[in-house]
Amino acid sequence: MKVGGNTVSVQEEIVAVVTMKSLLESGVHFGHQVKRWDPRMKKYIFAERNGIHIIDLQKTIQSIKDAYEAVRKTVTAGKTVLFVGTKKQAQQAIQKEAERCGMFYVNNRWLGGMLTNFFTIKKSLLRLKKLEKMEVDGSFENLTKKEIAALGKERTKLQKNLGGIKEMKDPPGILFIIDTRMESIAVAEAQRMNIPIVAVVDTNCNPEGINYPIPGNDDAIRAITLFTQIIANAVVEADNEAGLKIIETLGEDDEDMEEMMNDISLKEEDREIDIESYASSGDEETKTGSPGKDSNTDDPGTEEDDLPVDIDKVYEEE
Predict the structure, then answer these.
(1) Percent of the chain at pLDDT above 70?
(2) How far apart are CA 189 and CA 171, in angstroms?
(3) What range defines the domain where residue 225 resides?
């Protein structure tokens, strides 16, 4: 099939199938510690295990279906999708999947006014394009080294913050957000602009005000990647009326998958991540080591405040 003039392979169409096994393997069902929960997430919580809330995957599956259909209809109507995820675990997946489906993304920092003051943001985008053009057409040849260095620094800063929306001419038709607590400004701006929001909400998040909340783990790399792939597939498969297929049952060979409901080792993704090593390794596992309090023994000087992830999601193995 064709999307935006590009031919999409059959292999990519098959990716639009989500299984209960993939959700379990990705650790989607793991929430935060019980003491860190938001009571408004009560309806999405299945049980409590080892002091951790377990998310009801049946609710997650239904939410995924609703979000998938909402994104598909938005793209069919000719509108765009903006992927937002600035936490370190999400940066690589957000950029990769947004580029794969030809949509826009923000993965470094959400600048205040990206939606509510888009007119000013467009000026910065024009400035970025102008600097890139100057670098190519030889305009730098008439400048001093100091001036060239200053312009290069300005271009790098603009590219880092606005590179993902450089070609965005109008506000998006829908937002996909990872971690609504961290992206609270993006949520507030989208609500003010009446832009629908699809967001992954963990047990410490507030699902109210989110048009299409998807209850799930928003800290594990594999869980974030899975959710982002699903939304990207909704864009790619916008013309496919068949929609998303979800296999909710576990096969005979997958009986041991139920044990994952209690396997705290799947929380390894919640620890400190080196984005550069994750990017270079592709889809391979990016972290090793035993779970629990020993995960930071290689760096005895590391303090909890220095960790880039939510320290509340690092649990001790009983």
Answers:
(1) 70
(2) 11
(3) 15-110+171-281
